[in-house]
């Protein structure tokens, strides 16, 4: 059997990390993989996570199974964090999943269960794993226009134009905030217009929110998801705790499915539990438990929010520094968009050749589509990057 396997294509970002490790230059800069790093290049464990882990070590008396949905306290805490009071929580089914990826996968499993012929729409571009999972599941895939390469902003007219082709039953995957890979986001008003169009066409929105708290603030970053939840009869929301709680390897995510009525919720929740059962049975608990401990304890929550805010403001400061430096070097406002982008990433509109040249000439490692991880920078490396961009990009 195994001898029939064909090699899978190597992950481009992991390959890039390998090249980075092999580069002997001391001035090299890693702007590749999507993990938050502090000014020293370290991915820290957040203070509240450490405190919750200590508390858990003292208090936890069993490692027996929780529930198929995961601990209901986690679902409740995530509904509050992501949805706020935009909908009656009695309308929301929720399951813990292995990371945000697990939540996206389970959302697509749910859509496939209802209609295997459904078409899933993703932005062009999107997080490559979206497309990869959709194709792996043999679902139909379509793309809607999103990013304007010349201005590095959202081409909203083109986006709406492509979504006019939506059919009833289609699924539209939207990034809730901090679009990956571009960093360019819809305004709240634009999200509202997209919601209206989705409702008019009888399609279903799936929001992937993996960076809540990394853009404009914890509440602000949830505003679009909440708007969609309040406007649409039904909504799927895949939320990740990997970045905002810094618990990447704990695999902590949550899929929320909002039904039109509370009467529908038991069937929706039962279906979500069923999907967990089929795919991995009980979801991982450790990270989910830390998250619900933090979100339900005033002191832990305040400390977590303060640290998350430091992280967010740190990245915003780097964005501003880079945009200012590029303004100075190029004597133009061409790169001002870097300060307006939000989240961990910016796609800067460099060609693959320019990306390669920056790697060869300056040891700057960004993804081939010119996505850079802002958190890979610090105040000392920003001028080096700015100089490389100014020298290389036409
Ligand atoms: N969605 C998007 C858009 C992402 O960028 C990521 C993380 N790279 C995820 C989902 C899921 O991340 P994880 O499975 O690590 O929680």
Automatic annotation (TrEMBL):
Set out the biological process GO terms recorded for this chain's protein. L-phenylalanine biosynthetic process from chorismate via phenylpyruvate
Entry keywords, A to Z: Aminotransferase, Pyridoxal phosphate, Transferase
Aminotransferase class I/classII large domain: from which residue to which, for each copy?
A: 27-389
Q: Which domain of life is it from?
A: Bacteria
Q: Which GO terms describe its cellular component?
A: cytosol
* UniProt keyword Nucleotide-binding present: no
* Keyword Transferase included in the entry's annotation: yes
Question: What Pfam families has UniProt attached to this entry?
Answer: Aminotran_1_2
What SUPFAM superfamilies has UniProt attached to this entry?
PLP-dependent transferases
One GO term in the molecular function aspect is: pyridoxal phosphate binding
Per its UniProt record, the required cofactor names are: pyridoxal 5'-phosphate
Q: Which NCBIfam families match?
A: PRK09257.1
The entry assigns this protein to a family as follows: Belongs to the class-I pyridoxal-phosphate-dependent aminotransferase family.
Oligomeric state and interaction partners are given as: Homodimer.
Q: What is this protein called?
A: Aromatic amino acid aminotransferase
- Originating organism: Celeribacter ethanolicus
């Amino acid at each position: 059997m195994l001898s029939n396997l064909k090699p899978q294509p190597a992950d481009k970002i992991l390959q890039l990390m390998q090249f980075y490790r092999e580069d002997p230059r001391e001035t090299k800069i890693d702007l590749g993989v999507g993990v938050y790093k502090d000014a020293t290049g370290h991915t820290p464990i957040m203070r509240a996570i450490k405190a919750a882990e200590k508390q858990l070590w003292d208090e936890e008396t069993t490692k027996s199974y929780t529930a198929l949905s995961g601990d209901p306290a986690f679902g409740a805490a995530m509904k509050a964090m992501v949805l706020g009071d935009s909908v009656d929580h009695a309308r929301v089914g929720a399951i813990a999943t292995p990371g945000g990826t697990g939540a996206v996968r389970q959302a697509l499993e749910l859509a496939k269960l209802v209609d295997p012929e459904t078409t899933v729409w993703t932005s062009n571009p999107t997080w490559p794993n979206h497309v990869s999972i959709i194709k792996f599941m043999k679902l139909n895939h379509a793309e809607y226009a999103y990013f304007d390469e010349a201005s590095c902003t959202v081409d909203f007219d083109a986006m709406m134009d492509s979504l006019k082709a939506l059919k009833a039953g289609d699924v539209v995957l939207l990034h809730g905030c901090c679009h990956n890979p571009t960093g360019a986001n819809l305004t709240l008003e634009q999200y509202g217009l997209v919601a209206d169009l989705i409702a008019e066409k009888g399609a279903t929105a799936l929001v992937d929110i993996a960076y809540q708290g990394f853009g404009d603030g914890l509440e602000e970053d949830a505003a679009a998801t909440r708007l969609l939840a309040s406007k649409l009869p039904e909504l799927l929301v895949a939320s990740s705790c990997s970045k905002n709680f810094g618990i990447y390897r704990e695999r902590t995510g949550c899929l929320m499915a909002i039904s039109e009525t509370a009467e529908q919720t038991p069937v929706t929740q039962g279906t979500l539990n069923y999907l967990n059962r089929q795919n991995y049975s009980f979801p991982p608990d450790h990270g989910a438990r830390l998250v619900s401990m933090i979100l339900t304890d005033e002191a832990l929550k305040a400390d977590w929010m303060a640290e998350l805010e430091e992280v967010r403001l740190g990245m915003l400061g780097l964005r501003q520094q880079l945009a200012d430096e590029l303004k100075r070097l190029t004597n133009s406002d061409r790169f001002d968009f870097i300060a307006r982008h939000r989240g961990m990433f910016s796609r800067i509109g460099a060609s693959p050749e320019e990306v390669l040249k920056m790697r060869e000439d300056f040891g700057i490692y960004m993804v081939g589509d010119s996505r850079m991880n802002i958190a890979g920078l610090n105040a000392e490396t920003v001028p080096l990057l700015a100089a490389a961009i100014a020298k290389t990009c036409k």
